[in-house]
Design goal:
With 293 residues, the protein is α/β, with parallel strands linked by helices. It has two domains: 160 residues, NAD(P)-binding Rossmann-like Domain (Rossmann fold); 122 residues, N-(1-d-carboxylethyl)-l-norvaline Dehydrogenase, domain 2, CATH 1.10.1040.10. It contains 13 helices and nine strands. Strands 1, 2, 3, 4, 5, 6, 7, 8 and 9 form a nine-stranded mixed β-sheet that branches. Helix 8 crosses helix 9 and helix 8 packs across helix 10. The radius of gyration is 20 Å and the shape is globular. The termini are far apart.
């Protein structure tokens, strides 16, 4: 089996790297905060000191970091040289489609393939390998990485073609829809509570019948419990970053996104209150506050 490089072992990266190790791959890991990756070393990972040390000539490196700048910081000339001809860099981060297109062109100049493969999964879903990957980029490179995506986290893989930015657009669409669902549920539960309907009973009815989907079931429960600062899986800071990217992509394509503007404002309020590390479902508090609850 191939030796895989893996850059970034945060909330999502950690279970994916662990799954790859358990599947029998040799995994060379770089994490900016080395201590956070130490448990993976005990599972068989090889910890290295720089991003380029994760690469083998003609091999595969996965990166899963926070934002555009972080991807650009690891996708250095040193990493591309270490990967060499027909090496593959798989970016699983949620970033701007334009950044992915720029990176793809830069990689190609060095004979390296850049594949975009952002993740739809919370950490527990990634650990259980029931997540979804959306991929775009060089056709042969995508085929080569599919078994690793399945071994790492993905129950489903959707291929969007050769444009490196396409998978990023779909990822932004999905995160926007999740954020919109959080806002919608917050407003609906608030309406029920203001009119003497038990929100938890309403949640049970709605999420097991009309809205019987994981997004409504999982996020709806978090909204009702209002435990936004306990074990957050996706921070308000990252949520705001994603909504900024949604609106940036909308402006460039002249696409009005009024709901995205509202959600962006809700997340900005959360962060202004000093809760930048709270789970992004904290945006749901805005509807309750507006209603005087």
């Amino acid at each position: 089996m191939e030796t895989i490089g893996f850059i970034g072992t945060g909330h999502l990266g950690y279970p994916i790297a662990a799954n790859l190790i358990a599947a029998g791959y040799t995994v060379k890991i770089y994490n900016r905060t080395r201590d956070k990756a130490l448990p993976l070393e005990a599972q068989g990972a090889i910890l290295v000191n720089t991003p380029e040390e994760t690469a083998t000539p003609g091999g595969i490196v996965f990166s899963l970091v926070s934002d555009d700048k972080a991807v650009e910081a690891v996708a250095t000339a040193a990493l591309l040289q270490a990967l060499g001809k027909d090496g593959i860099h798989v970016s699983m981060s949620t970033i701007s489609p334009d950044t992915s297109r720029t990176l793809a062109a830069q990689h190609l100049e060095q004979g390296v393939h850049y594949v975009t493969a952002p993740i739809f999964a919370r950490p527990e879903a990634a650990a259980a390998k029931v997540g979804t990957a959306v991929i775009s980029g060089h056709a042969a490179a995508k085929e080569r990485i599919k078994p690793m995506l399945s071994a790492g986290f993905a129950k489903n893989i959707f291929d969007l073609g050769e444009d490196a930015g396409s998978a990023n657009v779909l990822k932004l669409m999905g995160n926007f829809m999740i954020a919109g669902a959080i806002e919608m549920m917050a407003e609906a539960f608030t309406l029920g509570e203001k009119n003497n309907v038990d929100p938890r009973l309403a949640y049970e009815m709605l999420t097991t019948t009309l809205f019987a989907a994981p997004i409504f079931r999982n996020y709806g429960g978090i909204i009702l419990d209002r435990q936004f600062t306990e074990n957050p899986s996706f921070s308000a800071t990252l949520g705001l970053k994603d909504m900024d990217l949604v609106l940036q992509t909308g402006r460039k394509s002249h696409t009005p996104l009024p709901l995205a503007n509202l959600v962006q404002s809700r997340l900005t309020t959360v962060i202004a209150k000093g809760l930048k590390e709270a789970d992004w479902t904290a945006l749901s508090g805005g509807a309750r506050e507006d209603a005087g609850l």
